[in-house]
Amino acid sequence: MTELLPNFVAGRWQAGSGAGTPLFDPVLGTELVRVDATGLDLAAAFGHARQTGRAALQALTYRERAALLGAIVKVLQTHRDTYYEIATANSGTVKNDSAVDIDGAIFTLGQYAKWGDALGDVRALRDGEAVKLGKEPVFQSQHLQVPTQGVALLINAFNFPSWGLWEKAAPALLSGVPVIVKPGTSTAWLTQRMVRDVVDAGVLPSGALSVICGSSAGLMDQLHPFDVVSFTGSADTGAVIRSHPAVARQSVRANIEADSLNSAILLPDGMPGTEAFDLLVREVVREMTVKSGQKCTAIRRIFVPEAVYDAAAEAIGAKLAGLTVGNPRNESVRMGSLVSRAQLTAVRDGLAQLQREAGVLYDGNGPQGRPLVDADRAIACCVAPVLLGTRDADGAALVHDVEVFGPVATLLPYRDLAHATSLAHRGQGSLVTSLYGADDAALGRTAVELAASHGRVHVITPAVAKAQTGHGNVMPMSLHGGPGRAGGGAELGGLRALDFYHRRSAVQASPEVLAQLGLTAA
Fold first, then answer.
1. Is 420 helix (H, G, I), strand (E, B) or coil?
2. Which of 31, 62, 274, 409 is the most exposed place for a label (fewest CB within 10 A)?
3. Per the residue annotation, which of 167, 257, 287, 403 is the catalytic one?
Protein backbone atom coordinates (compact mmCIF):
# COMPACT_ATOMS: atom_id res chain seq x y z
CA MET A 1 0.00 0.00 0.00
CA THR A 2 1.20 3.53 -0.80
CA GLU A 3 2.04 6.12 1.84
CA LEU A 4 -0.85 7.58 3.85
CA LEU A 5 -0.27 11.33 4.08
CA PRO A 6 -0.81 12.69 7.60
CA ASN A 7 -2.90 15.72 8.45
CA PHE A 8 -1.46 18.61 10.47
CA VAL A 9 -3.95 19.74 13.12
CA ALA A 10 -3.80 20.82 16.76
CA GLY A 11 -0.09 21.46 16.37
CA ARG A 12 0.93 17.92 15.35
CA TRP A 13 0.88 15.47 12.48
CA GLN A 14 -1.98 12.98 12.69
CA ALA A 15 -2.93 10.14 10.36
CA GLY A 16 -6.56 9.33 9.69
CA SER A 17 -7.81 6.01 11.02
CA GLY A 18 -9.17 4.79 7.67
CA ALA A 19 -7.51 3.04 4.74
CA GLY A 20 -7.49 6.31 2.83
CA THR A 21 -8.45 7.55 -0.62
CA PRO A 22 -5.80 6.85 -3.29
CA LEU A 23 -4.43 9.68 -5.43
CA PHE A 24 -3.37 8.71 -8.94
CA ASP A 25 -1.05 9.77 -11.72
CA PRO A 26 -3.69 10.82 -14.29
CA VAL A 27 -1.43 9.93 -17.23
CA LEU A 28 0.12 6.63 -16.12
CA GLY A 29 -2.76 5.50 -13.91
CA THR A 30 -0.43 4.53 -11.04
CA GLU A 31 -1.34 5.07 -7.38
CA LEU A 32 0.84 7.74 -5.74
CA VAL A 33 -0.23 8.30 -2.12
CA ARG A 34 -3.37 8.10 0.01
CA VAL A 35 -5.21 10.69 2.09
CA ASP A 36 -7.63 10.26 4.97
CA ALA A 37 -9.15 12.43 7.70
CA THR A 38 -11.24 9.76 9.43
CA GLY A 39 -11.23 9.93 13.22
CA LEU A 40 -9.62 13.36 13.59
CA ASP A 41 -10.70 15.39 16.62
CA LEU A 42 -11.98 18.35 14.62
CA ALA A 43 -13.13 20.29 17.67
CA ALA A 44 -9.61 20.14 19.08
CA ALA A 45 -8.14 21.08 15.69
CA PHE A 46 -10.30 24.18 15.34
CA GLY A 47 -9.93 25.06 19.02
CA HIS A 48 -6.13 25.00 18.82
CA ALA A 49 -6.12 27.20 15.72
CA ARG A 50 -8.74 29.57 17.09
CA GLN A 51 -7.03 30.01 20.44
CA THR A 52 -3.31 29.25 20.26
CA GLY A 53 -2.76 30.14 16.59
CA ARG A 54 -4.87 33.29 16.64
CA ALA A 55 -3.36 34.59 19.87
CA ALA A 56 0.18 34.18 18.54
CA LEU A 57 -0.59 35.80 15.18
CA GLN A 58 -2.56 38.72 16.60
CA ALA A 59 0.16 39.47 19.12
CA LEU A 60 2.23 40.51 16.11
CA THR A 61 1.96 43.68 14.03
CA TYR A 62 1.13 43.71 10.33
CA ARG A 63 4.81 44.26 9.54
CA GLU A 64 5.81 41.28 11.67
CA ARG A 65 3.20 39.06 10.04
CA ALA A 66 4.41 40.27 6.64
CA ALA A 67 7.84 38.98 7.61
CA LEU A 68 6.26 35.56 8.22
CA LEU A 69 4.93 35.58 4.65
CA GLY A 70 8.40 36.45 3.41
CA ALA A 71 9.81 33.50 5.36
CA ILE A 72 7.22 31.18 3.76
CA VAL A 73 8.32 32.40 0.33
CA LYS A 74 11.91 31.38 1.09
CA VAL A 75 10.80 27.92 2.24
CA LEU A 76 8.73 27.34 -0.88
CA GLN A 77 11.51 28.52 -3.17
CA THR A 78 13.88 26.05 -1.54
CA HIS A 79 11.60 23.10 -2.38
CA ARG A 80 10.33 24.41 -5.72
CA ASP A 81 11.74 21.53 -7.82
CA THR A 82 9.95 18.97 -5.66
CA TYR A 83 6.67 20.81 -6.13
CA TYR A 84 7.07 20.62 -9.89
CA GLU A 85 7.63 16.87 -9.68
CA ILE A 86 4.50 16.40 -7.58
CA ALA A 87 2.43 18.58 -9.93
CA THR A 88 3.52 16.56 -12.94
CA ALA A 89 2.76 13.27 -11.22
CA ASN A 90 -0.52 14.15 -9.49
CA SER A 91 -2.01 16.87 -11.72
CA GLY A 92 -0.66 15.82 -15.11
CA THR A 93 0.50 19.35 -15.93
CA VAL A 94 3.33 20.43 -18.22
CA LYS A 95 6.03 22.63 -16.70
CA ASN A 96 4.56 25.94 -17.88
CA ASP A 97 1.17 25.04 -16.41
CA SER A 98 2.74 23.98 -13.11
CA ALA A 99 4.42 27.39 -13.01
CA VAL A 100 1.02 29.11 -13.10
CA ASP A 101 0.13 27.25 -9.92
CA ILE A 102 3.45 27.11 -8.05
CA ASP A 103 5.26 30.28 -9.08
CA GLY A 104 1.98 32.18 -9.11
CA ALA A 105 1.50 31.22 -5.46
CA ILE A 106 5.01 32.31 -4.50
CA PHE A 107 4.57 35.64 -6.30
CA THR A 108 1.26 36.28 -4.53
CA LEU A 109 2.77 35.56 -1.12
CA GLY A 110 5.67 37.88 -1.86
CA GLN A 111 3.35 40.67 -2.96
CA TYR A 112 1.31 40.48 0.24
CA ALA A 113 4.53 40.47 2.24
CA LYS A 114 5.48 43.80 0.60
CA TRP A 115 2.05 45.31 1.20
CA GLY A 116 2.00 44.13 4.80
CA ASP A 117 5.41 45.59 5.52
CA ALA A 118 4.15 48.97 4.33
CA LEU A 119 1.28 48.85 6.85
CA GLY A 120 3.82 49.18 9.63
CA ASP A 121 3.94 48.15 13.28
CA VAL A 122 0.24 48.48 14.08
CA ARG A 123 -2.47 45.98 15.00
CA ALA A 124 -5.55 47.75 13.64
CA LEU A 125 -6.36 49.65 10.45
CA ARG A 126 -8.04 53.03 10.03
CA ASP A 127 -11.13 52.89 7.80
CA GLY A 128 -11.63 56.41 6.51
CA GLU A 129 -11.21 59.62 8.45
CA ALA A 130 -12.79 60.57 11.75
CA VAL A 131 -15.99 62.61 11.52
CA LYS A 132 -17.53 64.86 14.14
CA LEU A 133 -20.83 63.82 15.73
CA GLY A 134 -21.98 67.29 16.66
CA LYS A 135 -21.43 70.95 15.85
CA GLU A 136 -18.08 71.01 17.60
CA PRO A 137 -15.28 68.51 16.82
CA VAL A 138 -14.96 67.43 20.44
CA PHE A 139 -16.72 64.08 19.98
CA GLN A 140 -15.99 62.09 16.85
CA SER A 141 -16.54 58.71 15.19
CA GLN A 142 -13.62 56.76 13.76
CA HIS A 143 -14.20 53.56 11.85
CA LEU A 144 -11.51 50.93 12.13
CA GLN A 145 -10.87 47.37 11.07
CA VAL A 146 -9.52 44.73 13.43
CA PRO A 147 -8.73 41.05 12.72
CA THR A 148 -11.66 38.72 13.30
CA GLN A 149 -11.49 36.64 16.47
CA GLY A 150 -11.75 33.32 14.66
CA VAL A 151 -10.23 30.94 12.16
CA ALA A 152 -10.28 30.85 8.35
CA LEU A 153 -11.49 27.55 6.87
CA LEU A 154 -10.31 27.29 3.27
CA ILE A 155 -12.08 24.61 1.22
CA ASN A 156 -10.22 24.53 -2.08
CA ALA A 157 -10.64 23.06 -5.55
CA PHE A 158 -8.51 20.41 -7.24
CA ASN A 159 -7.18 22.55 -10.09
CA PHE A 160 -4.84 24.83 -8.12
CA PRO A 161 -3.42 22.92 -5.12
CA SER A 162 -0.65 25.50 -4.63
CA TRP A 163 -2.05 28.87 -5.69
CA GLY A 164 -5.48 28.05 -4.28
CA LEU A 165 -3.91 27.64 -0.85
CA TRP A 166 -1.60 30.62 -0.77
CA GLU A 167 -3.76 33.23 -2.53
CA LYS A 168 -6.23 32.81 0.34
CA ALA A 169 -3.77 32.09 3.13
CA ALA A 170 -1.62 35.15 2.36
CA PRO A 171 -4.24 37.82 3.22
CA ALA A 172 -5.58 35.66 6.07
CA LEU A 173 -2.22 35.22 7.79
CA LEU A 174 -1.30 38.86 7.14
CA SER A 175 -4.58 39.79 8.87
CA GLY A 176 -3.66 37.66 11.89
CA VAL A 177 -6.21 34.92 11.19
CA PRO A 178 -5.10 31.26 11.45
CA VAL A 179 -5.78 29.01 8.47
CA ILE A 180 -7.18 25.49 8.20
CA VAL A 181 -7.01 24.32 4.58
CA LYS A 182 -8.96 21.43 3.13
CA PRO A 183 -7.54 20.88 -0.41
CA GLY A 184 -9.37 19.20 -3.26
CA THR A 185 -8.84 15.50 -2.62
CA SER A 186 -7.61 14.35 -6.04
CA THR A 187 -4.58 16.70 -6.00
CA ALA A 188 -4.10 17.17 -2.24
CA TRP A 189 -0.51 15.91 -2.27
CA LEU A 190 1.03 19.23 -3.34
CA THR A 191 -0.90 21.24 -0.74
CA GLN A 192 0.02 18.77 2.00
CA ARG A 193 3.69 18.83 1.01
CA MET A 194 3.85 22.63 1.03
CA VAL A 195 2.27 22.78 4.48
CA ARG A 196 4.70 20.09 5.65
CA ASP A 197 7.71 22.07 4.44
CA VAL A 198 6.48 25.28 6.10
CA VAL A 199 5.75 23.44 9.36
CA ASP A 200 9.13 21.69 9.33
CA ALA A 201 10.85 25.03 8.78
CA GLY A 202 9.21 26.40 11.93
CA VAL A 203 8.44 29.81 10.42
CA LEU A 204 4.86 30.04 11.76
CA PRO A 205 3.57 29.82 15.32
CA SER A 206 1.72 26.68 16.36
CA GLY A 207 -1.90 26.68 15.17
CA ALA A 208 -1.36 29.29 12.46
CA LEU A 209 -1.51 26.78 9.58
CA SER A 210 -3.27 23.41 9.48
CA VAL A 211 -4.12 20.99 6.67
CA ILE A 212 -6.84 18.34 6.53
CA CYS A 213 -6.74 15.96 3.55
CA GLY A 214 -9.65 13.72 2.65
CA SER A 215 -13.33 14.15 3.39
CA SER A 216 -14.70 17.56 4.37
CA ALA A 217 -17.39 15.95 6.54
CA GLY A 218 -17.87 17.81 9.81
CA LEU A 219 -15.68 20.80 8.98
CA MET A 220 -18.53 23.30 8.63
CA ASP A 221 -20.00 22.05 11.93
CA GLN A 222 -16.92 23.36 13.75
CA LEU A 223 -17.37 26.98 12.72
CA HIS A 224 -18.15 29.66 15.30
CA PRO A 225 -19.71 33.10 14.66
CA PHE A 226 -16.37 34.95 14.25
CA ASP A 227 -14.86 32.34 11.93
CA VAL A 228 -14.82 32.70 8.14
CA VAL A 229 -15.06 30.13 5.35
CA SER A 230 -13.75 30.54 1.82
CA PHE A 231 -14.84 27.97 -0.76
CA THR A 232 -13.82 27.33 -4.36
CA GLY A 233 -15.71 24.69 -6.32
CA SER A 234 -19.10 23.89 -7.78
CA ALA A 235 -22.19 26.06 -7.41
CA ASP A 236 -24.06 23.11 -5.91
CA THR A 237 -21.54 22.70 -3.09
CA GLY A 238 -21.46 26.47 -2.65
CA ALA A 239 -25.22 26.41 -2.09
CA VAL A 240 -24.78 23.72 0.58
CA ILE A 241 -22.25 25.92 2.38
CA ARG A 242 -24.54 28.95 2.25
CA SER A 243 -27.42 26.94 3.72
CA HIS A 244 -25.35 25.48 6.57
CA PRO A 245 -26.54 26.71 10.00
CA ALA A 246 -23.13 28.24 10.72
CA VAL A 247 -23.65 30.62 7.79
CA ALA A 248 -27.44 30.91 7.75
CA ARG A 249 -27.97 31.30 11.50
CA GLN A 250 -24.65 32.27 13.07
CA SER A 251 -23.65 34.69 10.29
CA VAL A 252 -20.28 33.06 9.67
CA ARG A 253 -18.81 35.09 6.83
CA ALA A 254 -18.63 33.01 3.62
CA ASN A 255 -16.78 33.70 0.38
CA ILE A 256 -17.82 31.53 -2.57
CA GLU A 257 -16.14 31.14 -5.94
CA ALA A 258 -18.25 28.87 -8.12
CA ASP A 259 -19.03 28.19 -11.79
CA SER A 260 -18.18 30.82 -14.37
CA LEU A 261 -18.91 30.99 -18.09
CA ASN A 262 -16.23 33.53 -18.97
CA SER A 263 -16.14 35.09 -22.40
CA ALA A 264 -13.96 36.81 -24.97
CA ILE A 265 -15.38 39.50 -27.26
CA LEU A 266 -13.84 40.68 -30.51
CA LEU A 267 -15.04 44.21 -31.24
CA PRO A 268 -16.40 45.11 -34.70
CA ASP A 269 -13.10 46.70 -35.76
CA GLY A 270 -11.27 43.40 -35.22
CA MET A 271 -11.40 42.11 -38.77
CA PRO A 272 -9.19 39.25 -40.02
CA GLY A 273 -5.71 40.56 -40.67
CA THR A 274 -5.82 43.07 -37.82
CA GLU A 275 -3.68 42.69 -34.72
CA ALA A 276 -6.79 42.63 -32.53
CA PHE A 277 -8.09 39.57 -34.42
CA ASP A 278 -4.77 37.79 -33.97
CA LEU A 279 -4.67 38.68 -30.27
CA LEU A 280 -8.12 37.14 -29.73
CA VAL A 281 -7.13 33.93 -31.51
CA ARG A 282 -3.91 33.64 -29.53
CA GLU A 283 -5.60 34.28 -26.17
CA VAL A 284 -8.48 31.89 -26.84
CA VAL A 285 -6.08 29.07 -27.68
CA ARG A 286 -4.00 29.79 -24.59
CA GLU A 287 -7.04 29.84 -22.31
CA MET A 288 -8.43 26.63 -23.79
CA THR A 289 -5.18 24.75 -23.22
CA VAL A 290 -3.42 26.08 -20.09
CA LYS A 291 -4.01 23.55 -17.31
CA SER A 292 -6.01 21.61 -19.95
CA GLY A 293 -8.76 24.20 -19.61
CA GLN A 294 -9.19 23.41 -15.89
CA LYS A 295 -9.22 27.04 -14.79
CA CYS A 296 -12.13 28.89 -13.26
CA THR A 297 -11.13 31.89 -15.40
CA ALA A 298 -10.79 30.04 -18.73
CA ILE A 299 -12.62 31.35 -21.81
CA ARG A 300 -15.75 29.28 -22.44
CA ARG A 301 -17.64 31.53 -24.91
CA ILE A 302 -16.10 33.44 -27.83
CA PHE A 303 -18.17 36.28 -29.32
CA VAL A 304 -17.21 37.63 -32.75
CA PRO A 305 -18.98 39.77 -35.37
CA GLU A 306 -21.16 37.70 -37.72
CA ALA A 307 -18.90 38.51 -40.68
CA VAL A 308 -15.87 37.14 -38.83
CA TYR A 309 -17.36 33.83 -37.65
CA ASP A 310 -15.88 31.58 -40.36
CA ALA A 311 -12.46 33.23 -40.27
CA ALA A 312 -12.29 32.97 -36.49
CA ALA A 313 -13.27 29.30 -36.56
CA GLU A 314 -10.58 28.57 -39.12
CA ALA A 315 -7.85 30.54 -37.31
CA ILE A 316 -8.56 29.08 -33.87
CA GLY A 317 -8.82 25.56 -35.26
CA ALA A 318 -5.52 25.92 -37.13
CA LYS A 319 -3.68 26.92 -33.96
CA LEU A 320 -5.26 24.11 -31.96
CA ALA A 321 -4.25 21.61 -34.64
CA GLY A 322 -0.59 22.33 -33.91
CA LEU A 323 -0.91 21.35 -30.25
CA THR A 324 0.74 18.22 -28.83
CA VAL A 325 -1.14 16.46 -26.01
CA GLY A 326 0.04 13.67 -23.75
CA ASN A 327 2.55 12.81 -21.05
CA PRO A 328 3.89 16.06 -19.52
CA ARG A 329 7.25 14.40 -18.90
CA ASN A 330 7.88 14.51 -22.65
CA GLU A 331 9.33 17.91 -23.55
CA SER A 332 7.47 17.99 -26.87
CA VAL A 333 4.09 17.93 -25.09
CA ARG A 334 2.35 21.30 -24.74
CA MET A 335 -0.80 20.17 -22.92
CA GLY A 336 -1.02 17.45 -20.29
CA SER A 337 -4.05 15.67 -18.90
CA LEU A 338 -7.13 16.31 -16.84
CA VAL A 339 -6.58 15.54 -13.16
CA SER A 340 -8.69 12.37 -12.87
CA ARG A 341 -10.98 9.86 -14.54
CA ALA A 342 -13.90 11.62 -12.88
CA GLN A 343 -12.97 14.87 -14.62
CA LEU A 344 -12.54 13.08 -17.92
CA THR A 345 -16.04 11.67 -17.60
CA ALA A 346 -17.42 15.09 -16.64
CA VAL A 347 -15.83 16.75 -19.68
CA ARG A 348 -17.19 14.10 -22.03
CA ASP A 349 -20.66 14.40 -20.53
CA GLY A 350 -20.55 18.19 -20.78
CA LEU A 351 -19.46 18.01 -24.41
CA ALA A 352 -22.38 15.75 -25.19
CA GLN A 353 -24.73 18.33 -23.65
CA LEU A 354 -23.33 21.26 -25.59
CA GLN A 355 -23.40 19.34 -28.86
CA ARG A 356 -27.18 19.32 -28.68
CA GLU A 357 -26.97 22.98 -29.68
CA ALA A 358 -23.49 23.49 -31.15
CA GLY A 359 -21.57 21.75 -33.90
CA VAL A 360 -17.93 20.71 -33.81
CA LEU A 361 -15.61 23.18 -35.53
CA TYR A 362 -12.41 21.46 -34.41
CA ASP A 363 -11.92 18.22 -32.47
CA GLY A 364 -8.37 17.26 -31.58
CA ASN A 365 -9.57 13.85 -30.43
CA GLY A 366 -10.63 12.87 -33.96
CA PRO A 367 -8.95 12.67 -37.36
CA GLN A 368 -8.10 16.40 -37.19
CA GLY A 369 -5.92 15.91 -34.13
CA ARG A 370 -2.58 14.29 -33.38
CA PRO A 371 -2.01 11.01 -31.51
CA LEU A 372 -1.28 11.29 -27.80
CA VAL A 373 2.43 11.53 -27.00
CA ASP A 374 3.77 8.85 -24.62
CA ALA A 375 0.29 8.17 -23.28
CA ASP A 376 -2.20 5.36 -23.63
CA ARG A 377 -5.66 6.73 -24.43
CA ALA A 378 -7.22 3.80 -22.56
CA ILE A 379 -5.41 4.83 -19.35
CA ALA A 380 -4.49 8.50 -19.53
CA CYS A 381 -7.01 11.20 -18.59
CA CYS A 382 -6.07 13.16 -21.70
CA VAL A 383 -8.55 14.99 -23.89
CA ALA A 384 -7.49 17.24 -26.76
CA PRO A 385 -9.07 20.68 -27.29
CA VAL A 386 -12.54 20.90 -28.83
CA LEU A 387 -13.91 24.07 -30.45
CA LEU A 388 -17.67 24.10 -30.80
CA GLY A 389 -19.77 26.66 -32.65
CA THR A 390 -23.29 27.72 -33.51
CA ARG A 391 -24.61 30.64 -35.56
CA ASP A 392 -27.68 30.85 -33.32
CA ALA A 393 -26.19 32.59 -30.30
CA ASP A 394 -29.62 33.56 -28.95
CA GLY A 395 -31.17 30.11 -29.17
CA ALA A 396 -28.22 28.23 -27.67
CA ALA A 397 -29.46 28.15 -24.08
CA LEU A 398 -27.09 25.42 -22.88
CA VAL A 399 -24.02 27.24 -24.16
CA HIS A 400 -24.82 30.09 -21.78
CA ASP A 401 -25.56 27.75 -18.88
CA VAL A 402 -23.33 24.64 -18.96
CA GLU A 403 -19.64 24.95 -18.11
CA VAL A 404 -17.39 22.18 -19.38
CA PHE A 405 -14.33 22.29 -17.12
CA GLY A 406 -11.76 21.31 -19.70
CA PRO A 407 -10.26 22.37 -23.06
CA VAL A 408 -13.62 23.27 -24.59
CA ALA A 409 -14.97 26.59 -25.88
CA THR A 410 -17.86 27.66 -28.11
CA LEU A 411 -17.73 30.25 -30.92
CA LEU A 412 -20.80 32.51 -31.24
CA PRO A 413 -21.59 35.40 -33.64
CA TYR A 414 -23.16 38.72 -32.65
CA ARG A 415 -24.95 41.44 -34.67
CA ASP A 416 -23.69 44.55 -32.89
CA LEU A 417 -22.04 45.49 -29.58
CA ALA A 418 -25.36 45.76 -27.75
CA HIS A 419 -26.09 42.19 -28.82
CA ALA A 420 -22.60 41.06 -27.76
CA THR A 421 -22.93 42.53 -24.27
CA SER A 422 -26.39 41.04 -23.79
CA LEU A 423 -25.01 37.62 -24.73
CA ALA A 424 -22.10 38.00 -22.30
CA HIS A 425 -24.57 38.91 -19.52
CA ARG A 426 -26.39 35.62 -20.15
CA GLY A 427 -23.55 33.92 -18.30
CA GLN A 428 -25.46 35.12 -15.19
CA GLY A 429 -22.30 36.42 -13.56
CA SER A 430 -18.72 35.63 -14.53
CA LEU A 431 -15.23 36.02 -13.14
CA VAL A 432 -13.76 37.68 -16.21
CA THR A 433 -14.42 38.76 -19.77
CA SER A 434 -11.83 40.03 -22.20
CA LEU A 435 -12.26 42.57 -25.01
CA TYR A 436 -10.14 42.80 -28.17
CA GLY A 437 -10.03 45.80 -30.49
CA ALA A 438 -8.31 49.09 -31.27
CA ASP A 439 -11.18 51.55 -30.77
CA ASP A 440 -10.46 52.94 -27.30
CA ALA A 441 -13.84 54.68 -26.98
CA ALA A 442 -15.83 51.57 -27.90
CA LEU A 443 -13.69 49.42 -25.61
CA GLY A 444 -14.21 51.80 -22.69
CA ARG A 445 -17.98 51.94 -23.14
CA THR A 446 -18.21 48.16 -23.48
CA ALA A 447 -16.07 47.58 -20.39
CA VAL A 448 -18.45 49.69 -18.29
CA GLU A 449 -21.47 47.88 -19.78
CA LEU A 450 -19.99 44.51 -18.77
CA ALA A 451 -18.68 45.47 -15.33
CA ALA A 452 -21.94 44.80 -13.49
CA SER A 453 -21.90 41.08 -14.33
CA HIS A 454 -18.16 40.46 -14.26
CA GLY A 455 -15.56 40.58 -11.52
CA ARG A 456 -12.88 41.66 -13.96
CA VAL A 457 -12.90 43.15 -17.48
CA HIS A 458 -9.61 42.52 -19.30
CA VAL A 459 -9.14 44.90 -22.24
CA ILE A 460 -6.48 43.98 -24.82
CA THR A 461 -5.42 46.39 -27.55
CA PRO A 462 -2.36 46.29 -29.81
CA ALA A 463 -0.79 48.92 -27.53
CA VAL A 464 -0.72 46.51 -24.56
CA ALA A 465 -0.20 43.27 -26.48
CA LYS A 466 3.16 42.57 -24.81
CA ALA A 467 2.36 44.07 -21.41
CA GLN A 468 -1.06 42.51 -20.74
CA THR A 469 -1.07 39.84 -18.06
CA GLY A 470 -3.47 37.40 -19.74
CA HIS A 471 -7.21 36.89 -19.67
CA GLY A 472 -7.07 34.07 -17.13
CA ASN A 473 -4.06 35.13 -15.10
CA VAL A 474 -5.25 36.18 -11.65
CA MET A 475 -3.01 38.89 -10.20
CA PRO A 476 -3.04 39.81 -6.48
CA MET A 477 -3.47 43.49 -7.40
CA SER A 478 -6.93 42.95 -8.94
CA LEU A 479 -10.19 41.57 -7.67
CA HIS A 480 -10.70 37.85 -8.10
CA GLY A 481 -14.35 36.87 -7.86
CA GLY A 482 -17.58 37.56 -9.64
CA PRO A 483 -21.31 38.15 -9.09
CA GLY A 484 -24.22 35.79 -9.61
CA ARG A 485 -23.41 32.22 -10.62
CA ALA A 486 -19.68 33.00 -10.15
CA GLY A 487 -20.40 32.94 -6.42
CA GLY A 488 -20.73 36.59 -5.47
CA GLY A 489 -17.40 36.46 -3.66
CA ALA A 490 -14.23 38.53 -3.79
CA GLU A 491 -10.65 37.39 -3.30
CA LEU A 492 -7.43 39.34 -3.77
CA GLY A 493 -7.58 42.92 -5.04
CA GLY A 494 -4.63 44.23 -3.06
CA LEU A 495 -5.17 45.11 0.59
CA ARG A 496 -8.93 45.05 0.02
CA ALA A 497 -8.61 41.27 0.34
CA LEU A 498 -7.91 41.81 4.03
CA ASP A 499 -11.48 43.08 4.50
CA PHE A 500 -12.83 39.52 4.53
CA TYR A 501 -10.66 38.63 7.52
CA HIS A 502 -11.38 41.81 9.48
CA ARG A 503 -14.35 43.18 11.41
CA ARG A 504 -15.40 46.81 11.03
CA SER A 505 -16.23 48.80 14.11
CA ALA A 506 -16.66 52.46 15.08
CA VAL A 507 -14.99 54.07 18.06
CA GLN A 508 -16.83 57.20 19.25
CA ALA A 509 -14.62 59.34 21.42
CA SER A 510 -12.71 62.59 21.75
CA PRO A 511 -9.95 63.38 19.23
CA GLU A 512 -7.44 62.85 22.03
CA VAL A 513 -8.62 59.28 22.65
CA LEU A 514 -8.84 58.53 18.93
CA ALA A 515 -5.23 59.64 18.56
CA GLN A 516 -4.23 56.85 20.93
CA LEU A 517 -5.71 54.07 18.80
CA GLY A 518 -2.47 53.63 16.88
CA LEU A 519 -4.11 53.23 13.47
CA THR A 520 -2.73 53.25 9.98
CA ALA A 521 -4.67 53.44 6.74
CA ALA A 522 -5.21 50.23 4.79
1. helix
2. 31
3. 257
- Of 189, 186, 187, 182, the residue nearest 168 (C-alpha): 182
Please give the pLDDT value at position 522: 65
pLDDT value at residue 369: 75
Q: What is the CA radius of gyration of the chain?
A: 24
Rounded Cα gap, residues 340 and 237, in angstroms = 19
Question: Which one of the listed residues 167, 283, 287, 296 is annotated catalytic?
Answer: 296
pLDDT along the chain (522 residues), means of 10: 92 94 96 96 96 97 97 98 97 95 97 96 92 91 94 95 96 98 96 98 97 93 96 90 94 92 96 96 97 96 98 97 95 95 95 96 86 93 96 96 96 97 96 96 96 96 94 92 90 91 94 86 66
Q: What is the rounded distance in angstroms from the CA atom of residue 16 to the CA atom of residue 54?
A: 25
Q: Where are the alpha helices (DSSP H) in 126-263?
A: 163-175, 188-201, 235-243, 245-248
One-letter amino acid for residue 443 of the chain: L
**Which one, of 491, 522, 517, lies nearest residue 172 by Cα?**
491
Let me know the angle formed at the C-alpha of 490 by 486 and 492, rounded to the nearest 5 degrees.
125
pLDDT at position 430 is 95
Residue 496 in contact with residue 520, Cβ under 8 Å? no
How far apart, in Å, are the Cα atoms of 232 and each of 110, 122, 438, 490, 501? 22, 31, 35, 11, 17
**Domain layout of the chain by residue ranges:** 4-257+490-521, 262-479
Is residue 287 annotated as a catalytic residue, yes or no? no
In the annotation, is 296 catalytic? yes
Assigned CATH for 262-479: 3.40.309.10
* Domain 4-257+490-521: assigned CATH number: 3.40.605.10
pLDDT at 521: 67
Q: What angle do CA 487, 164, 334 make, to 5 degrees?
A: 105
Diameter of the chain measured on Cα atoms: 81
Q: What does the pLDDT read at residue 259?
A: 84
Contact by Cβ (8 Å): 43, 222: yes
Quote the CA–CA distance of 94 and 84 in Å, as a whole number: 9
Q: How far apart are CA 156 and CA 94, in angstroms?
A: 21
Strand partners, 299: 262
